[in-house]
Structure formats: structure tokens, C-alpha cells
Amino acid sequence: MTSVLVVHSQSLHRLGLHMLLAAEPDLTVVGEATSGTEAVRVSAGLGPDVVVMGDHAADPNGVEAIRRITRPLTPLPASEPVRGGGRPPRVLVLTPGGHEGYAYAALRAGAGGFLPQDAAPDELTAAVRIVAAGDAVTTPSVTRALIDAVRQERPARTTERETGLDMLTERERDVLTAVASGWSNAEIATRLSIAPTTVKSHVSHILAKIGARARVQAVAFAYESGLVRPAA
Predict the structure, then answer these.
(1) H or E element at residue 145
(2) H/E stretch holding 115
(3) Are strands 2-7 and 50-53 parallel, antiparallel or unpaired?
């Protein structure tokens, strides 16, 4: 069962998201929040697997809220229960049109996926499951914004990022390139002739080495480091 926290400033939208997600047999809505600030507090108390953030672009605290929600958890004493299976929640951001730049900032803050606000119900529920599993969900417009931002930032970031890239083994670079190309773990396993469990292990090691919180940040790193080049 995947636990979800719904965040939206408008009660009608929160209700709609709540009802849609709660209707799925493998999803349970454990709480709601009306803002990024409240989402941080509620998430810390409930420890959901996924936080679905709605009208974040209008919230001046939205990016900081994502950063605080997804930051690594402080180790607890052995006598206390560990929330969320010992890892911080993953964040799925619902993006309105024209806010791709904000989506990039949210990605850098730790968001694990993006979906248009007008996505179909089955797309939303599928995205929640994908993000909960640690995979990335994004859209062509957000990907385009990521590439554009990399083109602008990379000259000033090259040395820092290349140092991080040097920490990866040749096989890890192969896997990261495949991840940045949008391949699933199963596709990577088939194309690189390795076991799916090995792919998962490589991805975990890559995230740890580059300091990424989710798979989608690894995609950003692949572009920023120059491992993957944006198409002209």
C-alpha cells in the first residue's frame, strides 16, 4: 500500500485528488495540506510515501517545501518507529502550463516527478506509483526547460560536475546514460545484458555518489556533467 499526502490550496481540488487516489486499491491518502509550509509539517508527522503537490507555482514557499520534504531523515533512536520505510517522501508536482522554469527549480530541490495539472486520472495514479517506486516522471516541456537551463548554467558548473562524474565507474556511467535517455530498469537490464537487480543496485550507487535524492535528479546531473549532450 502506497501512502499519499495531497497538497493544494483549494478545497475542491484537494477533495478531487483525495477521492481519485483513495479509490485505488493500492493507494491510501493519509492526509492533506493547503500550502508548502503546512505540507512540510504534515509530512514530517505522517511520513507518506508520496506527496502530491498541486498549485505549487503560486506558493512562494513551494520550492523550499520540496527541499525540506525530500531531505534525508535524521536517524531516530532504535526505540522509535521509522517513518516511510526509513526514507524521505518522494514528491510528485502537478505543473500548470507556462511554469516549466519553476518545475526545473522544483527538480533541483528534490522533486521526483512532474505531471501536467490537466493530466488524465489514470495518468495521475500511474505517476504516483512510478514515483513511489523511485522512478522518474516528467513531461517533454519540463525536459526542454531542463535542457535549456543546462545550456545556460553548464559553463559555470563544468568543473564541479565533472568532479562528481569522475566518481562513477564505467558501468555506472553506462547506466546513468541509459537513465537519462528515459529507459526503465527493465529496458536497461535488457540492453546492457545485466540483471534487473543489478540495474537497481547501480542506480542506488549512482544516486549516493552524486548526492541525488531521486532518479530525475540523476537525469539533471547527466546533462549538467556533460555525460549526455542536449540535442541541437
Answers:
(1) helix 140-165
(2) strand 113-116
(3) parallel
Query: How many angstroms separate the first and last alpha carbons of the chain?
Result: 43
Tell me the C-alpha distance between 189 and 115, whole Å. Answer: 26
Q: What are 136-191's pLDDT values in tens digits?
A: 777 666 666 666 666 565 555 555 455 578 889 999 999 999 888 778 888 899 99
Quick one: 148 exposed, middle or buried, by C-beta within 10 A (0-12, 13-18, 19+)? middle
pTM for this predicted structure:
0.72
Check if the beta carbon of residue 113 is closer than 8 Å to that of residue 127. Answer: yes
* SS3 of residue 49 by DSSP: coil
Contacts of 191 (CB under 8 A, 6+ apart): 178, 183
Q: Which of 37-51, 173-187, 200-214 has the highest mean pLDDT?
A: 37-51
- Phi, psi at residue 53, to the nearest 5°? -105, 120
Chain mean position to CA 137: 7
Question: Rounded to whole angstroms, how far apart are CA atoms 196 and 189?
Answer: 5
For the packed helices 196-210 and 185-192, what is the interaxial angle rounded to 10 degrees? 110
**Among all chains, which residue has been given the C-alpha cell 503560486?**
58
Residues 6+ positions from 129 with CB-CB distance below 8 Å:
2, 26, 27
Grid coordinates representing 218? 540523476
Mean pLDDT calculated for residue range 14-18: 95
- Amino acid in position 49: D
The three cell numbers locating residue 16: 478531487
Q: Is 221 exposed, middle or buried (0-12, 13-18, 19+ CB in 10 A)?
A: buried
